[in-house]
Amino acid sequence: MDIIFSTVMLLYSLLTGSGEDHAAARELAASVLNASLGTTIVQASPSDGGGQGTSETGVKRDPQKDAPIVKGIYVTAHSAGGARMDSLLKLMDDTKLNSMVIDVKDDNGYITYPTETPELLELGTTQKYIRDIGDLMKKLKQHEVYPIARIVVFKDTVLARQHPELSFRHSDGTIWKNGRGESFVNPYMKEVWNYNVAVAKEAAKLGFKEIQFDYVRFPEGFDKKADSLKYEKTEQSRVDAVAGFVKYAREQLEPLGVRVSVDIFGYAASVPAAEGIGQDFVKISNDVHVISPMVYPSHYSTGWFKQKVPDKRPYETIVGAMEDTHAKLDPIGEAKPIIRPWIQDFTASWLGQGNYMKYGKKEVEAQIKALSDTDIHEFLLWNAGNKYSEGVNYE
Fold this sequence. Notes:
The chain is α/β, with parallel strands linked by helices.
C-alpha cells in the first residue's frame, strides 16, 4: 500500500476517534511523513544503550523456555482484587485460555497492591486495589494460570506530579499534561528506569513469570513540544533512549527467570520508526522475549490491507497486520521474539455508524483463525472492562 495514502487514511480515522491509543497513534502516523522508508538495524555495544541486545555480552536468551503457548486476557487491578476474579478464573478453567495480564503498575502510575519495599515507596504510590497479592498469586497457581505483570512505564501521572524534576515542565515550572490531564515521566532519566525495573523485580519475586511493559515511549506529539519544555536529556536520540530502557530492563530481569515483553502499536509493523515518540519496532523487538503489537481491527482506517472498513473485516485485517509483522521482524533472525498480539474483544462504537460492528464470538474467532493462518499461535484479548465474549473457541 502506498505509505502516504495509508498515513492520510490513518490520520482521518484517528482524528475522529478518542482515547490514548488514538492520540499516540496520530504521532506514529505523522512520523511516516517525516521518516525515510525502511529501517536500519544498529548492532549496539553493551554500553551505548542502543537497545539491540545482540552484542556478544548481551545476547538475549529465553528464561521461560518451558512456558506454555500463551492465550490470555487483560485483567485490571480492580478485577484482580475484586469479585470479578472468580468468574475470570472460571473462564480459565472452562476454556483453552491459560494466562492473565494483570495491572501491577497501572495507567495512572499507582502500584496496585500494598508493598513494603523501601525502594518502591521512595518514588512509588500504592493503592490497595489488590489487598492480598500473595493470596492472588496462590489462586493463579491453583488454577494453573500463567501470570504476566503489566507495568505502565513512562505514562505516570502520579510520579510526575510528586517529582516534577522527573517529568517534562513548562517554563513556569508546572508539569506538562496532555488533553486528558495525564503526564509522562522522562525516558532519558535512569532514576525512572531503575524505579520501573524495581517494580518489575518485585513482581518477579511475587511469582509473575513475565513482565509486560506498556507505554514504553515519549508522549504523543512530543517532537512538536520538545523545544518548549524543560527536561534532562543526553546526546541519544529518543529512539535510543527508549530502546536503551528495554535493553537495560531485559538484562536486569532475565537472570531472575522472567520474560520481558513490550506492547507496541500494531501500525508500527507497517510503517517506519516513530522518531517523535521514540518507538522503533525492530530495535525494541531485538531486546524482548515477546512483542505484543496491538492489532485491533478498529484501530485501522479505510484503505489498510485493502479493506474499506477494517473493523468489519477482522480476519483480513489481522492477516495483513501479521504479514507486515513477519516482514518487519524476519530480517533479525534468531533475535526475532515471540509474536503475541493483542486482539479485539470489544465493540468500537465510537467509530460511528457504518464504521464498526458488534464484536462477539464470531469476530474473536475470526481473529484467532487469522493468527493461526499466519503462523501465530499466541494472543491476548483486550477488553477494558474485562467482559469477554461467551462461547469462544480459543483453539
